[in-house]
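Project standup — Tuesday

K.O.: blocked on the structure for the chain from last sprint. Re-posting the sequence here as requested.
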Amino acid sequence: MKDKQPGLFRRLLSYTLLLLNIGSIGWLALCVLAATQSPLQVKHLALFTLTTPFAILANAVFVFLWLFTSKKIRSLLSLVALAVAYKTIIIIFGFNFGDNDLGKTPGRIRIMTWNVHGLGIFKVPRDKAFEKEILNYLELKDADIMCLPEYSVPKTDSMKPYARKIMDNGGYTDYRFHYDNTLGTTIYLGTAAFSRYTLHNYIAHQLAEYTFLLQGDVALPQGDTMRMFFVHLSTFGLSDDEKAYIEYVKKNSSALANSLGLTRTFVWKFNYAFAKRAEETDKAAAIIASSPYPVFVCGDFNDLPGSYTYTKLRGKLHDAFEDKGRIFGRTYSQILPTLRIDHIFYDPTVLKITGMECPHTELSDHRPVIANFEIIPKAGN
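H.V.: unblocked you, prediction finished:
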């Protein structure tokens, strides 16, 4: 009997691991499926997009785990699953450790998108030193075109208090702003665009009550006309207290079991936000698809790579992160290190990427996404 016990234990452990492995493959399959299924059509599936990096890592662990057992052949289970899901893997994990050239030279253009979190408007009392830091940071990054979601202006004058300074400091000749929300009775919050090139045919397309897609055409030096799209899609709607609770649970996992009601609230909010963004995304994608010019899309999508929002808006465009990014490319500084919700998509027929970065900064709850491009000369130039 003593000789049989270890054998029985090993078999039970082996079968348990096999079941867990099969479960991890099913988990990854649901994550991959969620990228193409509209949350308007399939409820709850979009929640899996929040876990895709962990499903990938779980399967990678099983590949190596089986190699240290007598059942090495089982490593093929997750290996095949990862191979099938490779398109999802390469948009989530950046494997670009080669040349990353952010140099400014003739024939190049640098474009940045950065949710600036109100440019310090949420700080009470007002911190003028902090606001000056943000302006200095924008000047330092030296982008030719900037998309700044969650930009704040007084309702009486969209040029105040920062636009003129930003334009003067950065040499911008065109500035556009469209509000999507208010803060109190005197402040507008919205998306701003600053450009050293004129934004022709400017339009603010309304996607929802508080969501707009900004459009402008840029004549690239020696290149084609490119239609720019700037967007800030609907958030998950989490309050500061709810975000703080998530941070608390990360350090005290036992607290989650005592707050099932709040967990259900999160699930409801997430499902509602996914569906709302899907409506906005479908409208935005139709507008983008109608462009007579090559397009460039950037902004705060509030959704992850591998989500329906990401897949639909990207279409056949290239993702700057996939081409030049590294590791996770985190753009939101709270909750999880995997939250890359700000994106840059571009048409490779007019732009060739040379480098990109998502530098850490304490000036906002988001990190900027900055991409450097060579302008591909137009035929005949």
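K.O.: great, moving the ticket to review. The CA atoms of residues 213 and 283 lie 9 Å apart. The chain has eleven helices and 14 strands.
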